[in-house]
Structure formats: C-alpha cells, structure tokens
Design brief:
Elements (H helix, E strand, L loop, with lengths): L2 H22 L15 H20 L15 H21 L1 H16 L4 H22 L13
Length: 151
Amino acid sequence: MSQRFDRYTSILFLLVGLGFVIESRRISASAYGSNVGPDIFPMGLGFVLILLSLRLFIETRGYANFESKKGKYDYKRFLIIVISAILYGLLIETLGYVITTFLFLAICFQTMEKGGWIRTLLISGAFSYGIYYLYVEVMAGTLPGFPVWMN
C-alpha cells in the first residue's frame, strides 16, 4: 500500500478502536453465570486495535514513497477462509469452543501455508485449549464446552 493510504487507515482504525473502548464502558460489567462480563471482549478488542493502529502510523514514517504494483488476487484462499469462518460461527454451539476453534485454526493455517501439519496441529490445539482454560478456569467465564456426546 501507499504511505498516504496506510496513514489515513491507521487514523480511521484508531478512531474505531476508541469507539469500541468508549462504547464498551456502557455495557454491563457482569453477566449471569460468569465473572467476566460482556464488556471485556469489545474493550480488549478496542485496545488491540488502538495499539495496532498506532504501530501502523509510526511505521508509515519509514516508508519509501512508492506505490505497490497491483497483484493477483487469491480468491481460492479467500473463499476457503470465509467459508471456514461461517462454519465456525454456525458450529461453535454444537461442537464447542475447543473443537471448533481447533478445526478453524488448522484449516486457516494450512490454507495460508501448506505443509507443516505437526506444527499446525500443535499450535491449533495449544491455542484453542489454552484460551478455553484461561477464560473458563482462570477468569471464570463461560464458553461453549465440549459436545454432550463427549462428556
């Protein structure tokens, strides 16, 4: 991308991140059956977006003034990831967080970089179970667990 586009985009994302943080303060701080309220995720997302936009803004100072050449779009990878994301949203209640996230990450990792199955499976498994454990056990939040037939 160009320096000008990236700079304006970083400012736009900074404003969106601030909006997330400000508006998440209006959401109730607790939810039924959970110590972690519904305001935590949007607030965290807002902070991450603010930090990433600041990083992009700082990085644009070091750009050389050149426009990128138009590249070939990879529709196949894009469609695989979009379909995987849709299936993830549809199946998370049925299969549970850990299994659905594991499958989604494994498919996305293999779509972006073929091969390295062992590394893909290890990272996908560690991430999906690690986040589940951290959120449910440590922070006492609620996520869809394992399917009923596995319990």
